[in-house]
Amino acid sequence: MFTPPFCPNRSCPQHTSPGVRFFARHGHYRSKCRPHPVPRFYCKTCRRGFSRQTFRADYRDHRPHLNAALFLLIASGVGIRQSSRTLKLSRRCTELKLRKLGRHARRLNLNLRRRLEGPTARFHLDEFETYEVERNTRPLSVPVLIESVTRYIVWAEAAPIRARGRMSKKRRAAIERADRLHGPRKDTSRRSLERTLARGSDLAKTASAVVLSSDEKSSYPGLAKRAFDGRKLIHRKTNSRVVRDTRNPLFAINHEEAIMRDLMGRVRRDSWLVSKKRRYLDHGLQIHMAYRNLVRRRFNRDVASPAQLLGFVPRRLTPQECLSWRQDHGMRSISPLSSRGNARVSLEGARPTAHTHASQFRNLGGGGGRT
Ligand SMILES: [Zn+2]
Fold first, then answer.
1. How far is the CA of 354 from the centre of ligand 1 (A)?
2. For the chain, what is the mean pLDDT?
3. Residue among 9, 27, 57, 72 at smallest CA distance from 318
4. Which residues make up the CATH 3.30.420 domain(s) of the chain?
5. Which run of H or of E encompasses 64?
């Protein structure tokens, strides 16, 4: 039976430090889209009512049974319009669902990460280019950082960059037109790279050495040095002209980017399916990360997912589990692996020692700690 872990009212004292019986049961209700009655409660302190549904990721959703299907379609390279045709949803409704799924996936990705174990952390870094609306005038750069062995995607996000490369008269005119329309294009790729490396740095907080593999882009060494400050940094640089086969030292990230391009229609080259808005690409990236890290096996011959190989979760998640409990309460959120809702996300993948337990509750950004 479901027992509420805390009061969902954020301004109530029972939200942060709930007492043993802070709530009272208050009957149930039936909804058209769920076969079982949904239990209701009220908080004895703030007297507010809530239900099991208040803790679910599909809280207040229309047609919640389509969420997992949309998650899988988006994670399989299908675009918003084709998904809406397949699911018989309106385009706007699909967009809103995608936005909610993307935000949820972002929180899930952050909540289900722990510090990497072992003295040496290994990462591969690269950036790939795509664009919003128009390739000629509005390119985007997407930095991607992965854990080298398990292929766990640590972070990826889209940043606008200025158009560059060969400039014809026509192209220059198109750029001027776009600038007039949207304002001069900013380049935030450096900031994006810093954020991406900082996510890696956070995972490798307790490592003594970091091995970073990347190409020879001149800005990487300085950024990496700052990001992994305090740890011994071994930066392995490979020339981009080296043949991109399985023996290439950057094979892991090249391969992962190829999978990304394949599974995210919107970053495919020469595709009709283009991001019309950058933030939908970010939502798509977060959904891809959740799918790649938590649902999919690392390689087809493996049984484990990347997050499982790193010990972040005890097993692979189903898409339904990924979209089960709300994750907007940080490490206090209910674990997606807990069907009854009685385990917190902070304890997933944790080794059962007092030290780990305490440190995880303190670190909202992904505690864990080596034991
Ligand atoms: Zn309350």
1. 29
2. 90
3. 72
4. 116-262
5. none
